[in-house]
Amino acid sequence: MKIFNIILFVCIMGSAFAQESKYKAKKTKPTYEEVKGERNKYVKKVMKNTYGLYNKRNKLLGTDSDYMLRDTHRTAWKSINLNNKKLLDLYMKTYIAPWLKENKNKYKHHESIAVYIFGDMDGNIIELGLRCPKELKIPISAYEEFEQALLSGELKLFTDKENPIFKNSTWVVQTIRYRPETIRNME
């Protein structure tokens, strides 16, 4: 109940501040479009400067894993790791890098490509998401191959299941960010 009161207080204060502010941030709502791959349908969520891709049949949409509710300090991600980052780098080089090499855009320092990897508590990859700068046009066929490689490959997430923060959790997520130039220059 105490956490709820704190969250409510923060929301009320934030709302009051926003109403009194002379400079209101212009919010743009994301748009959603369905994109058909060869085997699956995907959702493309387009935001102001980025877009995200995920499988329309994502089993985790609308669910929270228990650790997310207990992780008030947002530190659990430090306990969630990949078994083989070089393998993920290889997937990025194989499926994403060719489109960055075609795209000659120069990206700002803060722009990144984020891979959201969801795994069950045994470490098996069960879902995937990708967020990219808006200018980077990755064909859905390349994303679909990337997704299939990750879901059927040897990549795993691991965590200490004995850690109390993960009690009753059914899945975990790790976000790996890449600078576009890093992927573009992968050899």
UniProtKB/TrEMBL annotation:
Superkingdom of the source species: Bacteria
Residues of the signal peptide: 1-18
Keyword Signal recorded: yes
Keywords: Signal
Keyword Signal set for record: yes
Entry protein name: TonB C-terminal domain-containing protein
Naturally occurring in which organism (per UniProt): Marinilabilia rubra
